[in-house]
Design a protein that fits this description.
By secondary structure, the protein is an all-alpha fold. Helices cover 71% and strands 0% of the residues. The chain has a single domain, classed as Ribonuclease III domain (Ribonuclease iii, N-terminal Endonuclease Domain, Chain A, Orthogonal Bundle), CATH 1.10.1520.10. The protein has 6 helices and no strands. The longest helix is centred in the first third of the chain and has 22 residues.
């Protein structure tokens, strides 16, 4: 399987679950033990708006390699007309880019790099 040829939405499908798993573990490890509180805090990380904010900040700070930026751009530029009603299409596409990158890195067995990305997003704590 050539992961460079996998549909970016398939990569995002995988990346979304990995990203959310990191967030859930982080919040639980931070001492939150109420499901409603966990859900409220998770929105600060898993919403398309916040994911897009993180990925754009990381791009601005030259955090990603050229290869990683290419994957993000492939997802961002993928032709689609559907997106959640609570955000605009550009925001949604950047969030999809982050998820696609995480899915790509997972399939490429680069867990350490996923850790680095998530450490950045979580402010140094994973």
């Amino acid at each position: 399987m050539n992961i460079k040829e996998i549909n970016v939405l398939v990569l995002a499908y995988l990346g979304d679950t990995i990203y959310e798993d990191y967030i859930r573990k982080y919040l639980i490890n931070s001492g939150i033990n109420n499901v409603n509180d966990l859900q409220k805090q998770a929105v600060n990380y898993v919403s398309a708006k916040n994911q897009a904010k993180y990925v754009m900040e990381m791009i601005d700070n030259n955090f990603f390699t050229d290869e990683e930026v290419t994957i993000i751009k492939r997802a961002r530029n993928y032709k689609t007309t559907s997106h959640p009603k609570n955000c605009d299409i550009v925001t949604y596409k950047y969030a999809t880019g982050l998820e696609s990158l995480i899915g790509y890195l997972e399939l490429d067995n680069k867990k350490e790099r996923i850790d680095e990305i998530m450490t950045y997003i979580l402010g140094g704590a994973i």
